[in-house]
Amino acid sequence: MIIPIGDNNDDGASKWMKEAGDAFSSEHCNNVANAKDIDRRAYESRQNQDYLKPEEALECEKFRIQDTYGMTVTPELYQFFMKLR
Known about the structure:
Layout: H1 11-33, H2 40-46, H3 54-69, H4 75-84
């Protein structure tokens, strides 16, 4: 989420930042939905690591959703999931 700070209220900048945030969120949803499928063993192994590569983090996020909801992860399902947080 992008949050403007300061005393001045610049509507143009606020609109641009909202659009940029929405585009980032949409891209992230697509990346999670298109991440490689992993199994529970790979997921649990990664939970003990200090650092995950970006694609590994996306794969873990996709696994958590598939495991929780028992359905194929789509960008729309991920957006719904993010709104629940």
